[in-house]
């Protein structure tokens, strides 16, 4: 079982509630980053950024970020260094994203995938393991170097 974080905005709230409960029932330790009530005026960065930071620090093994399309959640999660988030709608990407790219945050759109499909994608994402093949490690090292360069530029 894994330590998983989950976050959403109003658009992904209902899906978050269902996924959180299902993952908990399966024995995962699920940390809910909110929201904790439906608020049509909330903003996904307020919930996804704390989730992404926890993944980046290693406090969580994986993260699930939800919004209406999944696009906004993906964009903001990837602003956090060390996070490799992707918008996922298909089985291949849910598995391959972890195996090849060490995906650590799956982003889903509540108006793009229904609960049943989201469960399948999340299960595949959680079951997949990074291959640590040399070519994938080389590519991820380049990504980490880019993050480092961008952080240095931001502090100038």
Please provide the ordered H/E string of secondary-structure elements.
EHEHEHEHEHH
* Proportion of strand residues: 5-15%
Give average pLDDT, whole number.
Answer: 95
CATH homologous superfamily annotation: Sugar-phosphate isomerase, RpiB/LacA/LacB
Largest sheet: 5 strands, parallel
What is the spatial order of strands in the main beta sheet? Answer: 2-1-3-5-4
Distance between the termini: 42 Å
Q: How much is the radius of gyration in Å? A: 15 Å
Structural class: alpha/beta
> What's the CATH topology label?
Ribose 5-phosphate Isomerase B, Chain: A
Number of strands: 5
Helix content: 40-55%
Q: Compute the number of structural domains.
A: 1
Shape: globular
Can you summarize this structure?
About 50% of the residues lie in helices and about 15% in strands. With about 160 residues, it is of the alpha/beta class.
